[in-house]
Amino acid sequence: xxxxxGFRSVIHSKVHQSLxxxxxxxxxxxxxxxxxxGVAYYLVGTPHIVKSEAMAGEDKIFKKVSxxxxxxxxxxxxxxxxxxxxxILNTHPFQFGPWVFAHNGNIKNFEKYKKRIYxxxxxxxxxxxxxxxxxxxxxxxxxxxxxxxxxxxxxxxxIEMATLMIRERLIxxxxxxGQFEKEDSTDNTKTYLxxxxxxxxxxxxHEGGKTLHYSTYKTKCSDRDLCPYxxxxxxxxxKTGKINHLIFASEPTSTENIWLKMKNGLIIGVDQNxxxxxx
Length: 279
Known about the structure:
Number of helices: 7
Number of strands: 13
Order of helices and strands: EHHEEHEEEHHHHEEEEEEE
Shape: globular
Strand order of the largest sheet: 3-2-4-1-10-9-11
Distance between the termini: 25 Å
Strand content: 25-35%
């Protein structure tokens, strides 16, 4: 199964530590998740995506991209394929307009439900499905609610409204395919719907059976004496809900971040003002 990493921050942050250099960095995890990689990052509100079907740990481009990317919003993914061949069209993250999506999961018996899922995707969005994966179908199925509401390019879309629409679409999806698993397991043929979704300003993560961790503060920030944005919430749990960073990871990296495991079915996100939202 795949591995996810993503963050939203008040400042442009580099990702080389989490992707390359930290203990259990994504590069190391790719040894057991070798079927491609992708990194999405935002510059001036626009998503930029670099992807490859090569294994991240052996790809010079992955190392180069990971070393230079600096952004307030990043999603990275390494793939261990369950549905679809190993090619760049099946590699995450997927993108439409400002929206970027990466999935760690599977739809059991996807071919059985494929046509029904497709029929519930907005007609305008259907033609943009280019690959074979259940993940890409899930992306456009979820995005259909935001597109149909007229909020696809709305930079002021609230995290509350986005979460509500995604939650309702998840109910619609599970009505078709059945419930996702309550606990992670080594059986990757089961249904799992763990994913990250962002438009660059808001970001949310859903724990759909495959484990997802999150972090909003550190034990001690190594840049505390230099960073102009340093506040006490950087090193302790926020009492107001306002945070300086939100990080998601399938497997915590060995850094100064304090990691918490998300509960099954939980959606956690941040709004444009970095206010934490848990649903």
